[in-house]
Amino acid sequence: MRTPALWLLGLALLLGALSGVLWVWTHDDLAPALLSGAAVGIALVALYAAARGGDGPVARLLPESSLPVVVLTFGIAMMLNGLAFGLWLILIGAEVALLGAIGLTGEFLTRGRAER
Q: Distance (Å, rounded) from C-alpha 17 to C-alpha 36?
């Protein structure tokens, strides 16, 4: 099974578990139904991605898993949350995003040196 299909299947399982909790703990039917529908939709996309197969290895600029990408994304999310919570969180998020961007630049440079 391809790695993207596994990630999508994991997300579908997480959403399914959360919707199961909502079905048990809420009296409203709309929120758990929407979450269940999202879980089913993502599971169908994961099954399609798994059945599609691969065209073979593709040359990538970055490794398959990269911590600086996660740090950069987390920093951007902190900055966006700062719009609601204040300037202090925007500044902290900017520092975290800058740290991720520096790490990503380092990965690009390391990859460039390895190809020579």
A: 9
| Whole-angstrom distance, CA of residue 31 vs CA of residue 81 | 23
Tens of pLDDT along 72-113? Answer: 999 999 999 999 999 999 999 999 999 999 999 998 888 766
Structure tokens at 108: 């690009």
Tokens of residue 4, six digits: 């993207």
User: Do the beta carbons of residue 95 and residue 75 sit within 8 Å?
Assistant: yes
Interaxial angle between packed helices 67-85 and 87-115, expressed in degrees from 0 to 180 and rounded to the nearest 10: 160
Distance between CA atoms of residues 72 and 90, nearest Å: 13
